[in-house]
Design a protein that fits this description.
The protein is mainly α. It is built from twelve helices and two strands; from the N terminus they run H-H-E-E-H-H-H-H-H-H-H-H-H-H. A hairpin with a 5-residue loop joins strand 1 and strand 2. Helix 8 packs antiparallel against helix 9.
Length: 258
């Protein structure tokens, strides 16, 4: 019964969507990053200190449409029902794209399905082409960053793509957090950049308690109790102001334990 329930749950998730990759709050054509002027791509994001989160040029593929007849090869272990749903949806998307190769959302969806079956190269091609179609949208860059960070293990390219995402959408909290986690947990050569990314995110999105708590935890784990207390107290003040008593209690406990 447990296995049957798991299978049903997997199929249900596949029907509704496929993870945090595809954001359906954008139109198929004429996509623009919300509240982000086009000139942001030329200036980069200025940090709060002497650190600058610059736009990093990313080599793009040519304008040739990716092969829509690419075989659908499952490298991940999925139940038959899930495989059928994916197969049917990929066939539907391919039909759409053969009729209109400029369908941005269809390329995003196709990349997500290909990533889900373990075809990371196919996912990369689809999302890179989506980025060509709508270079001002942060979504394909974020998807590519996640792909490179967690599946292809190319941390330099992950960094470049995540940076591109937050340059295009400075209020994209998930992008800063993704960069922080990349530096702190994976890209050890640049681990020292982890706290500044959170400070950049906090400066662009004040007051954000997630960044405050992450900064407090970072300084606690690296042995700087003074900075840890400072950020915990900032977060505590915000939670008290908003009446979030459960979080206030948790933060106070963290302060007591320092």
């Amino acid at each position: 019964m447990l296995n049957k329930n798991i299978t049903i749950a997997v199929v249900f998730v596949l029907i509704l969507g496929f993870g945090a990759y595809v954001y359906q709050d954008i139109k198929k054509k004429g996509i623009k990053a919300p509240s982000t002027p086009s000139s942001v791509t030329d200036t980069g994001i200025q940090a709060t200190g002497d650190y600058t989160l610059e736009q990093v040029p990313i080599e793009k593929p040519g304008f040739k449409v990716p092969d829509l007849n690419r075989p659908l090869t499952f490298s991940t272990d999925l139940p038959p029902e899930a495989k059928k749903i994916i197969t049917d949806n990929v066939a539907r998307l391919v039909t759409i794209l053969k009729g209109d190769s400029s369908s941005f959302n269809a390329w995003l969806d196709l990349g997500s399905y290909r990533k889900q079956i373990g075809d990371y190269e196919g996912a990369r091609e689809a999302w890179e082409y989506a980025a060509i179609l709508a270079p001002e949208s942060y979504v394909p860059w974020n998807n590519l960053g996640d792909l490179y960070a967690h599946y292809l293990k190319d941390y330099l390219k992950a960094e470049q793509n995540f940076k591109k995402a937050v340059v295009l959408k400075p209020d994209y909290i998930g992008g800063y957090r993704a960069l922080y986690e990349l530096y702190y947990y994976s890209y050890k050569e640049k681990a020292n950049l982890a706290p500044q990314i959170l400070k950049d995110g906090l400066a662009k999105n004040p007051p954000n308690t997630d960044f405050m708590v992450l900064l407090a935890q970072y300084h606690k784990e690296t042995g700087d109790k003074t900075q840890a207390r400072s950020y915990y107290n900032q977060a505590l003040d915000m939670f008290n102001k908003t009446g979030n008593t459960s979080m206030s209690a948790l933060i106070q406990q963290e302060l007591n334990n320092l």
